[in-house]
Amino acid sequence: MEYWSYVRTKRRAAYCSLIFGSLALLPPDPSRADLWTEKKVLELAATGTDHLLNLDYDLAEQTFTRFDNIDRSGLLAPLYQAFVMLSRLQDREPTRQEMDTFLAAMQALIAKAEAHLRQPPNEPDLLLLLGMAWGSKAMVDGARGNYFAAYEAIKQTKSYLDACLLHQPIRYDAYYGLGLYDYTLSRVAWFYRPLVQLALTPGNAGQALRKLTIASERGVATRALAKLALLQIYTGSEKTFEKALPLAEELLSRFPGNPELYFQAALVYSELGRFSEALEVGRRIRANLELGRYHFTREMLPRYLQLMGKIAMDRGDYPAALSFFRQAVEEPTDRYAWVTAWAWTRTGMIHDLSGKRAEAERSYRMALTIKTNNIAKDVARQYLREPYRKETARRSPAAGSDEPTGSP
Fold it and tell me: What is the pTM of this model?
């Protein structure tokens, strides 16, 4: 189905979102919470989440083990243990068994949390935890192919997060999950919407961005997470790179151990015509690849090559761009298959601009052979029908972009 095809296309980003987004804050004992324990929970959750965003898994795990000293509910420890485990799998595709293990852990946690919920009063923090736990289950169920379970989990996610805000309107962290809900459902193809809307409340992209902005400005646990989500949206389907710029700079400065942020920042700089800064980030990526630092693996090399080709293409240096794209397709990788698709598609676009239609068509057809659902293939189909003719116009930071970009 189109909705889950979209989820799989965005799998890496989705896993980041569900891993970090489910780090909700829950006082250790809702009936006996005090200022000291609540403050300590906030500090540990914020510190551990920062470690995870920086992909410092060991430090995150060490931080979260300290919940054992203050968690009388028995909910925090299994929640954070499950997400540290899943976050460690970001450097590769999780196996079906690993996803099933995570689903079982979430199901057990949800059952225990809902048992607490049946004991009044309904605590906003408990409702928030349940909303985030159901949301993470929905994402993994979808990636696992458990569609009916995923739809039910999505319904539960929205229900609990809405209830959280009903009980405590200033619980701004709930807006993060609701924003992701709205934006994801707003991306469902029009011909699937009647079916999806039989079970789920429709999503609205404008409302999604407003909710994520609220979380990014006022959230406690999800402030940085909402900024990351906004960055991904602004550099992706929205293509509002001027809004993405401050987010990219802030997040890269704060979390230099996360490779994704380097690629996002370089893309933003290039799209805004700030080529010296884009190339500097590219230089840092190359250095990290050569030294194997910050989770930069050999498998990321074609992604780096495709990025450098994109920057050269934006600058109008087509020979250099073609050279980088050629190197990228010569370094195929299953994990980054979309990189190969983009390299072929952008090669075709350059050939079209050079009046080499036959070579352009060949490149577009090569893009269509790649096993990926990335937007690059949609762009290739578009330019197979009609040649790409629009030169890339360099934009000022105040201008938008209508050129298909996709991931860097």
Answer: 0.84
